[in-house]
Design brief:
Helix content: 25-40%
Distance between the termini: 27 Å
Oligomer: single chain
Number of strands: 13
Strand content: 25-35%
Largest sheet: 13 strands, mixed
Radius of gyration: 21 Å
Shape: globular
Order of helices and strands: HHEEHEHEEHEHEHHHEEHHEHEEHE
């Protein structure tokens, strides 16, 4: 498993655009500590030419996802290979055989155990540093996939927005109209609110509801929610989280953002020790980079496409401006998710990256 994780670091150690995962996080992801293992089966494969390690891949069957979407699909994830199609064929072949042995009928990827893992093979934007939540790969990767007969299952796009000097007037007007029409309000979280009013639980329940119809999404289990609340919620600067509630206190919208950790992770080289923690702590404790990552936006389904997103950004933009950010970057958004992409119309925007989930029948 150590070789499996480190192979990616070795392949990309001189690449200025790849953002490495933290080694300790990867060990936990691939171990029984990961709650997804309660409903996933997985095998991990390494490819060798002689004594030289030349590729890796994870074969995953997410039984809850297959049940939810009525499929018999084996996933491939965490795939890396040298530019030799014999290597990529051998890796995919191992996943296919694993899938067939378990009665699967098709193969898709790159996907993780769940949607909280990085997914999608990069198709363009190779000369732009990625975010901490995305995959980087060399341009020959998707060429190999096409040569092996794979086709498009879904594409994601990623955007960079220029932080404006002030909140756009149109956004302010829409925000005010929406607040009055639906009786909504912005609130800020505190550690006390999270602890006493169970906001961590409520946030992930909202994500489950808001994302339920997106490609491949499966609701997070209680064990997963507990893990994410414990592991990640404490890392957030709560000033950069915007919550929308009804007058009765019903949670209907959330926008979560944080300082980009891309440069810090590159400097850490995937390791917290001996000095990696220093680079991450500098960012987490207030040395702001020029970019803020928009980790996620989730809106309760009955409030989607009603301008609620404007409330999130009239709350967050003044903070971005005050902290001196120049850019906002989104995480991957499904290319057909026009409701999400419509919210960027207020900004000077560039489509920075595109990535793909490939599919093939077994």
């Amino acid at each position: 498993m150590k070789k499996f994780i480190r192979f990616n670091y070795e392949m990309y150690k001189t690449n200025p655009y790849s953002v490495p995962d933290l080694y300790e996080d990867m060990l936990d992801t691939f171990s029984s500590k990961n709650p997804a293992m309660e409903f996933c089966e997985a095998e991990f494969f390494l490819a060798y030419q002689g004594d030289t390690l030349v590729g890796r891949v994870a074969a995953i069957i997410n039984h809850r996802a297959n049940e939810r979407w009525g499929k018999k699909t084996v996933r491939f994830g965490w795939i890396d290979y040298i530019d030799d199609v014999d290597v990529s064929r051998s890796l995919i072949g191992a996943v296919e055989e694993f899938g067939k042995a378990h009665g699967m009928e098709n193969i898709e990827g790159p996907l993780g155990f769940t949607d909280m893992d990085a997914e999608g093979m990069l198709l363009d934007g190779y000369d732009i540093p990625g975010t901490m939540a995305t995959i980087y790969n060399y341009p020959y990767y998707p060429k190999h996939m096409e040569e092996m007969g794979f086709e498009k299952a879904a594409d994601w796009v990623e955007f960079r927005m220029v932080v404006p000097d002030k909140v756009p007037d149109k956004m302010v007007r829409i925000s005010e109209i929406v607040q009055k029409k639906y009786g909504l309000r912005n609130i800020k979280l505190t550690k006390k609110k999270i602890r006493e009013e169970k906001y961590g639980q409520r946030l992930f329940e909202l994500i489950n509801e808001g994302y339920k119809d997106l490609f491949g999404f499966v609701a997070l289990t209680q064990a997963q929610i507990d893990q994410y609340v414990k592991t990640y919620l404490g890392l957030l600067n709560l000033e950069m989280v915007s919550i929308i509630e009804t007058a009765e206190g019903e949670l209907i919208g959330v926008g979560i953002s944080m300082d980009s950790l891309s440069v810090a992770l590159q400097k850490a080289k995937g390791k917290l020790l001996p000095f990696g923690w220093f680079h991450l702590l500098r960012v987490l404790k207030g040395k702001h980079p020029d970019t803020v990552d928009l980790l996620l936006v989730a809106i309760k389904p009955e409030y989607q496409n009603k301008g609620v997103n404007a409330m999130l950004f009239t709350d967050l933009l003044p903070i971005y401006i005050r902290n001196g950010y120049k850019y906002c970057e989104t995480n991957p958004e499904l290319e057909l998710n026009s409701a999400v992409q419509k919210q960027w119309e207020y900004f000077e925007t560039a489509n920075m990256r595109r990535r793909r989930c490939f599919k093939k029948n077994l």
